[in-house]
Specification:
The chain has two helices and 14 strands, in the order E-E-E-E-E-E-E-E-E-E-H-E-E-E-E-H. It is mostly beta strands.
Length: 268
């Protein structure tokens, strides 16, 4: 989920410059090619303990036992969640999937539920390791505090809604879209996100056409840098109402800002 705080298990909305909608689904994208984004995961929850899991957020494989997602996706006990890796079509079994229970979840210690204050990141420890089956891979992370230039094109992937209408289309197949980075010096201007855009965040999009939306929260912003795909962002929030608003780009937690914390959690 990604947009509404009340429904919101997974995306942040924003009223003008104050409210956030947890980001959900990709708007303006297309079906990803099968077995392309091997670090993408579906983070799922059995909300009512009935043995039925729903996709609530995305995530990224960052180790054999660890997945990275957004802190705002974590609502409930770790035992209510599972991670699905090697996923492509949420409603079909292709034989590439691995369904893995969650052992422990570490939310960033400075996350307080306020999307505009940042720290929207969490590390999920799995109950058993992911095994290599040709459909999964550990995502590469950026260098510490690495930033990307304005208009650098990355890719957003997820199973978020594909439009903003009341009859919003939820895809079964993983979606992808090329999306340009918006430099912090631009995104922090008053007619963009203003003071809500922090140095610990990455903005991307804002053209009024493409964006993340409900259901994309926690998923990766993947960027090809010097020939290597690296996970530079974790989907955090976007504008309330229409996801693809002009000068209101999708906002991501900047992974390079949190590398020390990520490594400490994985090693503990």
């Amino acid at each position: 989920m990604i947009w509404f705080a009340t429904l919101l298990s997974c995306i942040g909305l924003i009223y003008a410059e104050e409210s956030f909608v947890k980001n959900g689904r990709i708007i303006g994208g297309s079906n990803a090619q099968y077995n392309t984004w091997q670090w993408q995961v579906s983070f799922q929850q059995d909300t009512y303990n009935e043995g039925y899991y729903n996709h609530i957020c995305g995530g990224s494989i960052i180790g054999a036992l660890h997945v990275m997602t957004a802190a705002h996706c974590i609502i409930g006990h770790p035992s209510s969640f599972r991670v699905v890796v090697g996923e492509y079509n949420l409603f079909e079994r292709e034989g590439s999937e691995q369904y893995i229970a969650v052992e422990h979840i570490t939310v960033h210690p400075r996350w307080n539920g306020e999307l505009g204050l940042g720290n929207d990141i969490a590390i999920v420890k799995l109950a058993e390791p992911i095994y290599g089956n040709g459909f999964v891979n550990i995502g590469n992370l950026p260098a510490p505090y690495e930033t990307l230039p304005d208009k650098f094109v990355c890719h957003l992937t997820g199973w978020g809604v594909m439009d903003y209408a009341s009859t919003a289309i939820v895809p079964d197949i993983l979606q992808e879209v090329a999306i340009p980075v918006v430099a912090h010096s631009v995104c922090s201007q008053h007619d963009w996100w203003g003071s809500l855009a922090l140095e610990s965040m990455i903005c991307a999009g804002g053209d009024g056409v493409i964006s993340g939306c409900q259901g994309d929260s926690g998923g990766p912003l993947s960027c090809l840098v010097d020939g290597v795909w690296r996970i530079h962002g974790v989907v955090s929030y976007g504008p309330i109402g229409r996801c693809n608003q002009y000068k209101k780009p999708t906002v991501f937690t900047r992974v390079s800002y949190f590398l020390d914390w990520i490594n400490s959690v994985m090693q503990s």
